[in-house]
Write a structure and sequence with these properties.
The protein is α/β, with parallel strands linked by helices and about 425 residues long. Helix content is about 45%, strand content about 20%. Strand 7 and strand 8 form a beta hairpin.
């Protein structure tokens, strides 16, 4: 196989990516600081930053004093250079949010979703994209990308996102292709847990860790595994289906059709059904979070069921610690956060009981910091990750990007500045 040679263009792209990534994640910095953190020469930093300022991608944002010299300009990624949209495709609703590059949320749209028809979901997603763009008062050409977080396996191997989800009845749905047929905005599709995982690693409880597992517990149960700072996808993009690992051989029936899955014991729908059956309450969707948020001690059968659920959750986390030896386990999702806020110490005890002592002693178990419904925000980081990786340049496979669009972004950024 012929080895591709590194070109000057490749080096320039990589250097721009290094600077842009450092600015985005590290916040306002001077040119001198960027040279120190990226190990690039001051000449290279000045030239590349000058390019990105001319493009409207980077802007000066204040001054910082220097030892005996003139104050230095601080730089940042320009919030108004472009916008990103993220969506969460849940079982009963679709949430769409629009952000600028400072991750300030500027517009929101939400729709009920009945049934498991992919065409209905696609129609609502495209409607939501149009709605948030209109609410924010921007043009579609200013949107850098539309990220969509979904339940199930997202197979990216064929160049287009194909969704497989037994629990929602989506069998090889070409979601990426269906969305691209309805919009010119670049589309990014990812498993919802992986999308939240990226956001938590960037902005939340995973920040600063190189090895982490972000677990989400709601109706479904999933995990995002981060190894040496990179999301682990597996050979066919389905790594992280933690909820469908076997906890009890030939145990309770799971939505996926198998028996004994972890989700069958800690998924909120299953826990709600058990609590309702034991207490005579109506099994409505918010029963679990309402009980956990209530003041006072839980009593009777409900207390026993929740204690058992906490034990199962801790056992599952113990298994993740033994398997991946992460620095951090981050617990999120609506049910995960609700249980964690009330029973985090008990979850840690259960995890310690089911994990090997040495890896457990080096793992911290924390709660997600971005809230129970962070999938849309996580999905919005997908196009930002592409922007950073490409150094703000068109993808290498699409060097002939329309100049009018780039020019419009630059002029828009300058006008807003």
């Amino acid at each position: 196989m012929e080895t591709r040679r590194t070109t000057v263009r490749d080096v320039r792209r990589a250097n721009r990516a290094s600077l842009l990534t450092d600015l985005f994640h590290g916040g306002r910095q001077s040119r001198q600081q960027l040279g120190e953190t990226t190990a690039l020469s001051q000449a290279s930093v000045s030239n590349l930053i000058g390019e990105m300022i001319d493009e409207g991608l980077v802007e000066e944002a204040g001054l910082v004093g220097s030892d005996g010299g003139r104050p230095r300009a601080l730089l940042r990624v320009a919030p108004g250079y472009g916008y990103v949209v993220g969506a969460d495709v849940g079982e009963t609703r679709i949430l769409v949010e629009l952000y600028d590059l400072a991750m300030s949320r500027l517009a929101v749209a939400q729709y009920a979703l009945d049934g498991d028809d992919p065409a209905a979901a696609v129609a609502k997603l495209l409607e939501g994209l149009g709605a948030v763009v209109a609410e924010a008062g921007i043009r579609c050409s200013e949107v850098l990308g539309f990220g969509v977080g979904v339940a199930g396996v997202v197979d990216q191997s064929g160049g287009s996102a194909v969704v497989h989800s037994q629990t929602t009845g989506w069998d090889a749905v070409p979601l990426g292709e269906l969305l691209r047929a309805g919009t010119d905005v670049p589309v990014f599709v990812e498993n919802g847990a992986k999308a939240v995982g990226q956001a938590e690693m960037w902005f939340g409880a995973g920040r600063g860790a190189r090895h982490a597992v972000i677990v989400l517990v709601g109706t479904g149960v999933g995990a995002a595994v981060v190894v040496d700072g990179r999301s682990y996808r597996g050979a066919f993009s389905n790594a992280g289906e933690w909820g469908h690992t076997t906890l009890v051989y030939d145990g309770d029936l799971c939505r996926c059709g198998a028996r004994g899955c972890l989700e069958a014991y800690i998924g909120s729908a299953k826990v709600i059904a058990r609590v309702a059956a034991a207490t005579g309450q109506e099994p409505e969707p918010r029963l679990l979070t309402r009980m956990l948020a209530a003041d006072g001690a839980l009593q009777g059968a409900a207390a026993d069921i929740l204690a058992e659920t906490v034990g199962y959750l801790g056992a599952g986390i113990g298994g993740l610690i033994n398997l991946f030896s992460p620095e951090r386990i981050v617990l999120g999702g609506p049910a995960g956060l609700a249980m964690g806020e009330r029973f985090l110490s008990d979850i840690r005890v259960a995890a310690a009981r089911n994990a090997l002592k040495q890896p457990y002693s080096r793992t911290r178990i924390d709660l997600c910091q971005l809230g129970p419904d962070a999938v849309a925000m996580g999905a919005a980081t997908l196009p930002i990750a592409r922007l950073l990786a490409d150094g703000g340049l068109p993808p290498a496979s699409a060097q002939a990007a329309p100049p009018s669009r780039a020019a419009h972004r630059r002029s828009t950024a300058r006008n807003r500045g």
